[in-house]
Structure formats: structure tokens, C-alpha cells
Design goal:
With 559 residues, the chain is α+β, with helices and mostly antiparallel strands. The chain contains seven helices and 33 strands. It folds into four domains: 26-124, Immunoglobulin-like; 136-250, Immunoglobulin-like (Sandwich); 266-382, Immunoglobulin-like, CATH 2.60.40; 452-539, no CATH class. The chain has helices at residues 2-26, 411-436, 451-468, 471-485, 494-498, 505-517, 526-532, and strands at 30-34, 38-40, 44-51, 68-82, 85-98, 102-106, 110-111, 114-115, 119-124, 136-142, 146-148, 153-161, 165-171, 175-177, 180-184, 189-195, 198-211, 215-219, 223-230, 233-241, 245-250, 266-267, 269-276, 282-284, 288-298, 316-320, 324-330, 333-346, 350-354, 357-363, 368-374, 377-382, 536-539. A hairpin with a 2-residue loop joins strand 4 (68-82) and strand 5. Helix 3 runs antiparallel to helix 4 (471-485) and helix 3 (451-468) packs antiparallel against helix 7.
Amino acid sequence: MVMLNCTVFRSAVFSLIGVLAFVSSSYAAVTARVDRPSVDLNESFVLQIIVDNNIELKPDFTVLDDKFVRRQHTELSNTTIVGGQLRRDRTWSVLLMAKSTGRQEIPAITVGNEKSEPISIIVNEATHTPPGEADVFITSEVDQTEVFVQSQVLYRFKVYRAVATRQEGRRDPVFSGAEVLVERAGDERSYEAILNGRPYSVIERVLAIYPQASGEVSISPALFEARVLRNGRITGRKVFESEAHVIEVLPIPAPPAEFPDAAWLPARDVQLSEEWSREPREIAAGEPVTRKITVTALGQIETQIPAIEVPLIEGMNVYEDKPDLSRINEAEGIRGIRRDQYAMIGVRGGAVDIPEVRVPWWNIEAGEWRVARLPSRTIQVDAPVVAAVAPVVVEPEAAPVEIPQDLPMSDGFWKRASQLIAAIWLLTVLAWWWSSRERTPERREPEPPPVYKQQAKFVKAARKAAGSGDKAAVRAALIEWARLQWPQDAPRNIGDLAARVAPPLRDELQRLSANSYGVRGADWDGAALAKSLRSIDVMVEDRETIIDDPLPPLMPSRS
């Protein structure tokens, strides 16, 4: 009966574990993101759906078909080893082209029982047409030609290619005249565009330029060099260049009368917010509370955002911490972020007034001073509690008690007490001997380490070998890693392994394979291979049927 109950209990436990595993996979967190928040009507962009669990459920992309044209999509299973811990997630990437201009909303994408948040994307009119029937050309533009000192200018240049190119090289423009600070406004992007019915692959780079003095800034053309492949023949090296630009930089205007000492902060938008470590309506004197004040400025770098002066608060001590500076990239440029943190301690009871926080800034679109504000507030501080001290009562001195000297002590009492102490000592010695005697340990076969720890060991060995240029050791370590990843169908060489992983690791493995087995050999970079091994993206075969694509392929085959 007992054995039957144990069997039923174990079955119930395993069933519960299975249900919980299914529920956890069904409710995996779903995140959606796009590679570019602003595109032209004839340009493609990539939508990524990321699930923080390696589940078999697939996203429902049919909700996109009303506003977007779906093209090919890929699926990646990502495995990352960080500090010996194995992390898995799955990413679907789908190539989209908008059907109309304006602000378009990408609806929520459903995976299992979870949905992503909707995303807005700005679709602009098509701005570039190819010069004639050019196979390769380059364009550039600036979003403003007249700005104030330290204001952001977005410089964008694109390389269009309708044919294959080799030995490519790109050179950023040269800036002359007034001194400028140049920052990358996001990563380099690759996508497709349809111009006059012809498909082009596009490479786009965006720079944020901040003139540091008034005057004039001259921007030379950006250059693209490559050999062009036409009809099976490759041309000599050709140089393509964009337009040149000139920017007029105006001096800093006078501060507003209300803030004569205002710091200069030109931006498109400034937001001011605060966070408290706990609700500050009522705190106790002597107990610290943390306040974080965040300033974000669109069109400005984080180091340009002025520090917020520590307010003087009567009845409260304020201690400033080191600021946290960061940035994010948006469609309209860089948004700098500054977070100032303060520890605040009430020193007396009663109402404490927290003054208003004000940050004046220059709106570059409206051409006027504005002020971002945090409203004032009142905090009630409870007075410190003083512990009550009980009064000391002095009793009258008592008369001493006399002990009779003639009370006899029994000899039998002392004898029994001595025997008891001896017995306790003997038991202590026996217990010590029993616990300290040698015992023959049971022999147990050591359990093999988990698969992810074995894989982490081989990845670490491969990175070390790549750093030292040991190709043989790299190959051996990665093949061992692959045998654990695909125990039923392990790749036999580095070339086979390269076909099962995503870039940048795939590209580095192909270079290593070509260097090792190619007829003439190819260059390979051990440091680049070691860097690509920090995260391994495993390709997953995609068997989903894609809807008919009304757009022609980027590189149509020649008949």
C-alpha cells in the first residue's frame, strides 16, 4: 500500500513538472524591435521577434500583411555561455517594406500565449533615384544647414549597389572650418531599396556632428571604392563619391532673463523625471531615502547635459552620488541620458519642503528657450523616537543574613556528585573517540559535468587557441563542442560547422577553413575568431512557407 502511494505520488509530481514546463514555455517573454525607426517608402527594414526561451512555437506574422509586404525571414536559436551559465533564446527576423508613408504601427506579434508590444515606425517619401541606370552610386545629406554651436547635425550617406562588388572600401568625409565633434549615431545598416523598379542593396551610415564654435563647417564628399563584377568580368578599382555640404554655425544666444546663469543645452526634446527608493510621503527621521533625477536630451550627447545642483533643503541632509551617463539612438539622433542620485536623510520631525527642479534648455526646432520642471513636494518626517528610561528605585539596605556555621554537609552528597562528574567525563571521551576514528569512505563514481559546462570548456579552449594563432587546436576544440551540440549528427569539419552557425562566427570559420584547406590559402584573423566565439548563434532550419513576394529579388539570376 505504501509503495503504491509512493508510485502515484511520483507520477503526480512528474506530471506537474511537465505542466509547469509547458506553461513556462507558453508564457515566455516576447520582445519586438526594428533595425531602423525611420525608413523611406522604397526601403526594406528588419523586424526581430525575440523569445527568452528556446520554444518550438512560432510567431504569427499574418497580422503584418495589411500595412507591410513580407519578404524572406530567418530563425536563430542563440546559445550564450556567461560565467558558466547557459542561456538560450530564439529570434525570428523578417524583412518588411511599408505599403504607405506616414507613421505606421507594427501590431503586436503573438507567440503562444504572449504578445509583443506594438512598435511605431516612420515611413518617408522616396528621396533618391539612381543617376541614369547606374549600377553603383553613393548619396549623402544633412538634416540642417544652419545650426547653433553644439547643436546636432545628422549626416547620412548611403551606398547603392545593383551589382556585386569586390575589394570594397569606404571613407568618411573630412570636416574643415569650425571645430566639430563627430559621433556615430547607431551601427552601420544594410537593407534593400527599389529604385525605378530595380533592386539595390544599400549600406547606410549616420554621423552626428556637433560644431564647437561659430563659423562655417565644410563637409567633403564621402567615398566608396570597389571593383565591380559585370557579366562574369571584374573591372578595375572604381571610386564613387557623394555630394559636398556646407553648414553655417551661429553663436550661442543670450540666456533667458529668468535664468541668467543657465547652461547651454540645445536639443530637440528634454525630459525630466524622478524615482524614489520608496514612497516619500512619510519617512522617519534618521532613515535615508534615495532620489534619482533623470534628464534626457534628444539631439545631444550625455556629457553635454548639465549637472543638477544639489538643492538646499531645510530639515534634511542631502548627499550627492556619482552621476550615471548613457545614451540611446533614436530616429532623430542621439538621446543623451544623465542620472543623478541623492541620499536624503531627515534630521528633524515635521513637514519638509522639497523645492522645484528646473532645467532650462534651447529648443532647436522652435528657436527659443524652454524649461523642463519637476514640481515641488512636501514630505512629512516623523520625529525620532526617544526610548523611555525607567527610574531607578533605591531600596533600603537590607540587613545581612547570617548563615549558621554548624550546618553539617552530608558525605553521601559529595560522593554522588563526584561519581556523576566522572561519568559525564567518560561519556565525553567515548563520544570523541567514536567521532574521530577512521572510517572507510564509500567509493562513488564521479558524475560527468553537465553538457553546457563541457561546451563552455571547449569554447574557452578554442578562444585561447585562436588568440595564439593555433589553428589545429581551434579546429579540435570546436569539433568537440559540435559533437555535444549535435550528438546524433555532428559536423565532420570546420566547413560543415560554419554552415550551422550564424555570422559573425560563420564568416570567421569559413576564413579558417579556406586558410587550412584552400588551394592558395586565405587570410584569417585569430583575434576576430576569438571575439566571434563570445556568442554562438545556431541556425535553425526554417520550414515555414513564406507568402508570395510581389517584389523581385535583390540580385535576379541572369538568363
